[in-house]
Design a protein that fits this description.
Chain lengths: 357, 238
C-alpha cells in the first residue's frame, strides 16, 4: 500500500527526517507515535504528497508517488486531517463539500453525502452554520468529514484529537475505526498519546528525532521497546542498568545494584544491559513466596503512592526503587501506605533486556 | 471673501438639488471612468496578485517591492508616462486615446493596478500554510486552489478594490494630462473643480467638491462594512 524507503527531509540546514523506511499494509490502521517535534507531521505530509522528500523513494497504491505525473491523481485517492482544524470562512456545508467540488461531483450526490457525513459526526443540524462559529471539537469533526466524503483509499491523520473535548475525541476515533472496518480504508494516524495509538492502531512505528527506530505491534512496542528512549516514551516505569552474571541456555541472572534478576535473554555473561519492565507487570503482596526461576521476589518498603485514574503507582524501595501499578481498590484492600513493608514480584518473561551501548 | 464662501455653498446646494445637467454629466462621467478603471484593474490585479503569491521566481521579492512602491506613484507622473506613449508622436499614437475617456481609464488603471495587486498578494500571503496544504490535500488543481484561496481572502481583496476606486476617483493629475478636461467629453469631478476654481466659479467648484466628498464618504462606509463583515466572521469563530 505504502512503501517508503530512505525518506529524508531537510529544511535548509535542519534535517527533520532521516532515512525513514516503512511499509503500511492494505486495510490496516498504522500508528505513528513519538514526542512532539519528532517529525511525525512532516512524515505525514510527505506521505500525503503535500511536500516532497529531499531524498528517498516512495510508492503508494502501486505507483511511484514521487513522479510528477502520478502525484495529483494519488492525492485525490487520499485524505488528510491536520492537527489544528483548518476551517474555511464558509458554511459547514461548503466546507465539507470542497473536496467533492474539486472532483466535479454532481450536486445531488454532494448534498446526499454531506448530509450523511454530518449525521455521522453528530452535527446533523449544522449544515448552514458559518463554519468559523464552531468550537474546536466541532471544527475538527467537520474537517474529518471533509477528508472522508471523497472516499479516500488512504487516510492520514495528524494528531487528530490533540486538545479536543472527550466527546469529540470519541466521535472522531469511532468514525475512523468504522471507516477502517466498513470501507477498508487504510489509516495512518500520528499521536503522542500512546493510549490512543493502542486504541486505534494494530501496528505502530515510533518516531524519535526524525528517525524510525522501531515498528511493530502495539504489544511489542509497549513491552519490548528497542531503546531506552522508546521505553521512556511508552512509559516503561522500571529501567535499570545491570550486568549479566550468568547465562544458562537463555535464562540469565542480571545483577542490578547487588540484586539478581532472573531474565530471559541470549546476552552472555559480563554484558552490560538495561533491564526494562512495566509497572503493571509488577505485583505486590504482603508475604513473599518462594523465589523460583520464573519469579523475581523481593521485600521492600513503600516510598510513595501516586494515584493515576483508577490505578495507583506504588513505588517500593527494595534496594532499587521499583514502580508497581495496582488498582486503587486493591491498594486499599492491601492497606498500602508509605513505610509499609511489602513484597514485589515480577516474572522473568516480563523483563525486557537490552544491551547497553 | 467670507460672504463669497457662504454664497458659493448656497449656490452649490442649489446646483445639486436642482439637478444641474452639467453637474450631473460630470459626476456620471467621473463614476464611469473610475469604476471602469477599477473593475478592469481588479480583473488584471487579482490574478496577478495570485500569480505573485503562487509562483516563486528569481527576483520575486524585488517585483513585490516595486509593486508596493507604485502604490505611491504620483498621479501626474502616471499621466506623463502614458502621455508619452499615446500622444500622436508616441508608439501607441495610432490608437488615438489621448484626450478620450478610454485614455483616462487606462491612466487610472496604471495607478490602481499596483494597489490591488500588492494588496491581493498581501492578503493571500496572510493565509496560513496549513490552509494552503489542506486545499492541496483535498485534491484541488492549481486553478481550483487559487480560486479557493482568493475566495477565502475575499474581504481583504474587496477592501483593496474599494481602496483602488478611492484612488481613481480622487486623482486629478493623470485625468488632467490624459483627458485634457474637455467639457462634456473628458471633464470629470477633479479636473472640473481645478478649472472652475482657477476661473473663479466657486459655486460650481464647491458643488462638485461636495459630490466628490460624498463619493469618498460612500467608499469609506463600504470599506468599513467590508472590514466589519470580515471581523465579525472571524471573531465569532474560536
Amino acid at each position: 500500500m505504502i512503501e517508503a524507503d530512505g525518506l529524508s527531509k531537510r529544511y535548509g540546514e535542519k534535517e527533520i527526517l532521516r532515512e525513514i523506511s516503512l511499509s503500511v499494509r492494505n486495510g490496516e490502521v498504522f500508528g505513528l507515535i513519538g514526542p512532539s517535534g519528532s517529525g511525525k507531521s512532516t512524515l505525514l505530509r510527505l506521505l500525503d504528497l503535500i511536500e516532497m522528500p529531499t531524498r528517498g523513494s516512495l510508492s503508494i497504491l502501486g505507483e511511484d508517488a514521487l513522479a510528477r505525473e502520478s502525484r495529483f491523481g494519488l492525492r485525490r485517492r487520499m485524505g488528510m486531517l491536520s492537527q489544528r482544524p483548518v476551517i474555511f470562512n464558509r458554511t459547514v456545508y461548503e466546507n465539507i463539500a470542497m473536496g467533492m467540488k474539486y472532483r466535479k461531483v454532481s450536486r445531488a450526490i454532494i448534498e446526499e453525502r454531506v448530509r450523511d457525513a454530518l449525521r455521522a459526526i453528530g452535527l446533523a443540524d449544522y449544515s448552514r452554520r458559518p463554519a468559523r462559529t464552531l468550537s474546536g471539537g466541532e471544527a475538527q469533526r467537520v474537517a474529518l468529514a471533509r477528508a472522508i466524503v471523497t472516499d479516500p483509499e488512504i487516510l492520514f491523520l495528524d494528531e487528530p484529537t490533540a486538545n479536543l473535548d472527550p466527546h469529540s475525541v470519541e466521535t472522531i476515533e469511532e468514525t475512523i475505526l468504522q471507516l477502517n472496518r466498513d470501507a477498508g480504508t487504510t489509516v495512518v494516524v500520528s499521536t503522542h498519546d500512546m493510549l490512543q495509538g493502542q486504541r486505534l492502531a494494530g501496528r505502530m512505528g515510533v518516531i524519535m528525532e526524525g528517525m524510525l527506530p522501531q515498528t511493530g505491534s502495539t504489544m511489542e512496542i509497549f513491552h519490548r521497546p528497542a531503546t531506552t528512549n522508546i521505553a521512556r516514551f511508552v512509559q516503561v516505569a522500571n529501567i535499570f542498568d545491570g550486568v549479566v552474571a550468568r547465562n544458562t541456555g537463555g535464562e540469565a541472572d542480571v545483577v542490578v545494584e547487588g540484586k539478581s534478576f532472573c531474565t530471559v535473554t541470549p546476552l552472555g555473561r559480563g554484558k552490560t544491559v538495561n533491564l526494562l519492565f512495566r509497572a503493571e507487570d509488577v505485583t505486590i503482596g504482603l508475604e513473599g513466596g518462594a523465589r523460583t526461576s520464573a519469579r523475581n521476589v523481593y521485600p521492600g518498603k513503600i516510598v510513595r503512592l501516586i494515584p493515576s485514574g483508577p490505578f495507583m503507582n506504588v513505588i517500593v524501595d527494595c534496594g532499587i526503587e521499583v514502580t508497581a501499578l495496582v488498582t486503587i481498590r486493591s491498594a486499599e484492600d492491601l492497606g498500602l501506605s508509605p513505610g509499609k513493608e511489602v513484597w514485589i514480584s515480577v516474572k522473568a518473561t516480563a523483563i525486557h533486556v537490552l544491551p547497553r551501548e | 471673501m467670507a460672504g463669497e464662501i457662504i454664497n458659493g455653498f448656497v449656490q452649490a446646494i442649489q446646483l445639486i438639488v436642482s439637478g444641474d445637467p452639467e453637474v450631473i454629466r460630470i459626476t456620471i462621467l467621473s463614476l464611469e471612468v473610475s469604476l471602469s478603471a477599477t473593475l478592469l484593474s481588479a480583473c488584471i490585479s487579482i490574478p496577478l496578485g495570485a500569480f505573485l503569491y503562487y509562483y516563486d521566481f528569481p527576483g520575486k521579492r524585488a517585483v513585490v517591492n516595486l509593486v508596493q512602491t507604485l502604490y505611491a506613484l504620483p498621479t501626474v507622473l502616471a499621466g506623463l508616462l502614458l502621455f508619452l506613449f499615446i500622444s500622436n508622436q508616441g508608439p501607441f499614437g495610432f490608437l488615438h486615446l489621448l484626450y478620450t475617456a478610454p485614455g483616462m481609464v487606462i491612466a487610472q488603471m496604471i495607478l490602481v493596478i499596483p494597489l490591488i495587486t500588492g494588496l491581493t498578494f498581501a492578503a493571500l500571503s496572510g493565509i496560513d500554510r496549513e490552509m494552503k496544504q489542506t486545499v492541496t490535500s483535498l485534491g484541488a488543481t492549481t486553478l481550483q486552489s487559487v480560486g479557493t484561496l482568493i475566495l477565502e481572502s475575499r474581504f481583504a481583496i474587496l477592501a483593496a478594490v474599494i481602496l483602488g476606486f478611492g484612488r481613481a476617483i480622487s486623482e486629478v493629475g493623470a485625468a488632467m494630462i490624459i483627458g485634457g478636461n474637455i467639457r462634456g467629453y473628458t471633464r470629470v469631478l477633479t479636473t472640473a473643480i481645478s478649472l472652475e476654481t482657477s476661473v473663479g466659479d466657486f459655486a460650481f467648484a464647491i458643488a462638485l467638491g461636495i459630490i466628490l466628498l460624498g463619493v469618498a464618504v460612500i467608499v469609506n462606509i463600504g470599506l468599513n462594512l467590508v472590514q466589519s463583515g470580515s471581523a465579525w466572521q472571524s471573531s465569532s469563530g474560536s
